[in-house]
Design brief:
2 copies of one chain form a homodimer. Chain A is of the alpha/beta class. Chain A has 3 domains: 16-59, Orthogonal Bundle (434 Repressor (Amino-terminal Domain)), CATH 1.10.260.40; 73-173 and 309-340, Rossmann fold, CATH 3.40.50.2300; 176-305, 3-Layer(aba) Sandwich (Rossmann fold), CATH 3.40.50.2300. Chain A contains 15 helices and 12 strands. The first copy, chain A, is elongated. Chain A binds a DNA duplex (30 and 30 nucleotides) through helix 1, helix 2 and helix 4.
Amino acid sequence: MASHGVRGRGGGRPTLEEVAARAGVGRGTVSRVINGSPRVSDATRAAVEAAVAELGYVPNTAARALAANRTDAIALVVPEPETRFFAEPYFSDMLRGVGAALSDTEMQLLLIFAGSDRERQRLADYLAAHRVDGVLLVSVHADDPLPDMLAQLEIPAVISGPRSAAETLTSVDSDNYGGARQAVEHLIGRGRRRIAHITGRLDVYGAQRRVDGYRDALRDAGHPEDELMIEAGDFSEEGGRGAMAALLERRPDLDAVFAASDVTAAGARHALREAGRRIPEDVALVGYDDSAIARHMDPPLTSVRQPIEEMGRSMIDLLLAEVADRRPPASRELDRRQVVLATELVARASS
Amino acid sequence: MASHGVRGRGGGRPTLEEVAARAGVGRGTVSRVINGSPRVSDATRAAVEAAVAELGYVPNTAARALAANRTDAIALVVPEPETRFFAEPYFSDMLRGVGAALSDTEMQLLLIFAGSDRERQRLADYLAAHRVDGVLLVSVHADDPLPDMLAQLEIPAVISGPRSAAETLTSVDSDNYGGARQAVEHLIGRGRRRIAHITGRLDVYGAQRRVDGYRDALRDAGHPEDELMIEAGDFSEEGGRGAMAALLERRPDLDAVFAASDVTAAGARHALREAGRRIPEDVALVGYDDSAIARHMDPPLTSVRQPIEEMGRSMIDLLLAEVADRRPPASRELDRRQVVLATELVARASS
DNA sequence: AGGTACTGTGGGAGCGCTCCCACAAGTGAT
DNA sequence: ATCACTTGTGGGAGCGCTCCCACAGTACCT
């Protein structure tokens, strides 16, 4: 019998109070049960659970958030202005991992775009209002002020792809260095001798690490150093095409190329075709990401697979841990965590 | 200065009350100002706005949600269990449109996965708790109970890709029928006479519409009907391959194929290659979606582009309108809206 | 017997808003 | 001058929770 002050509420969903009345206990006890407190007798717990089931009670998140000063939500912030990153399988794979990890919890996932200035401002207000318990950061550039803002607001955050070796935030990354080594060692194993590298955007730490891996793999195999075999790309197809053309000009005798991304490799492939080089007979080609493009390229592209879904999972695990044990930031810095996950080479016909 | 009852709150963010004190007005007045009520004098409004700026006040969403019984959040529900859909550019493009449309509002976007049974259950609880003001539904199958659940809970919802011609929810879709016609008419224009079609999953309404478009385009061009030229696929690469093989067996003289998706076309391409048919010399190939795969295929694939980003935008616009004017469901049914956006053929070397 | 320590429980206070009623002050018709 | 509105404003009540204090009951020491 909906009684006093019914404000057109959607059919009067049951409240904690009603559950308490039904179970013949106090409000506090119901709260303890639904929050899994151990300080409740078994009999009482059973009675409350029965009442919850009978009434179809679902806690009101807003009330809980207001009273407990937490939100049970985390945000995934996508700072990319040009949403290039966004269209890559990278994004959806990570989302899948994040979603899977989250489905074990009560946490909700908010998607926040911070490309434009206005979106940035909105994000800043949003974070200032502490409307999420934690933040997942992907694809952040070295000069982005976001991580510092987060640190200042003391909002737990995990970043995918550390900005540098000195990353202060908890981070999850794939082994860019090792992945590059795998690619180059694979090419060496295939008998290639003059292996070039088209880099990614070098303001991205992971791209730098791939260059390091490329260099070290060659050095360890006793190959002479040759800076002319390295050309800067920017992860784009056009960049790959241009870089490949430059490399062919400088080192027409090259017999293999390791590209910092599959899209870059696709660009390189065009340039190679135009120059009349066959893949893999004349020039072997290896990409990075193992995206759909790699599988559908002609010939199919050998590529380095990152365990992206697993990275998403890891990020959630780390973030939830930080949210849970909310320590003073001082101590937090001591055991900051940098997780690095192994990559895997997927060999195909291009090499 | 922090006085009574400070519960370790994060540095005491200012409240409505504090803004009111600072501006020398009452709480109600501040509330009116921040909610844009017209019933405030200009002088008072200015004073309140100044106080808001000085204090850096940001409203507490939880309190607002609790008091006003709304959440200022909408959910994007992804019901796909196998997240195939998810890896398609389709998803990220739509997300981009949704994000763009949303950035003009105060609404937040929640991403909810409803693949597994557990996720389903969580979603049901979530919706029952009215934790979002509206729901965006993508990639919903004909037998999914979700739309009905939404209707019963009276939660505004917009669906992308109506489940049938009799869709009861507000929907946004691209013109599958027209897109298929464009593809077939393009092939006819190129002088092709024996045009086959590999369908998508026929339990998806859009796939049916593409078949209709294919049929009508041929009929209108005076081509004889030939059911043997149609083979069922399932949007997958493997399905495309198998369907192509079957078609070649039945109609070895076919000279063109319209595939219901780019991925399907990629599968068809493999089968054609294996059969020794050249593309486009022997058989012209047209796909659907204009995904990255189409651009990177060899030869590049002619494909039908859907205005997906625009669809995302439209969905948000429609949903927010429904959220805003919360009418009784009865009247809502009368002017339910079905928006259909035009497609565009992107001609490439495969046809 | 008295103390101390727990365990389980009830319920007051309060989280920061919105809603709405009350009311002061101004405006115009009667 | 009286009444009836309108406009702008203040502040009480209440949204549904969590937190925490108080307290009854039981158990185990001295």
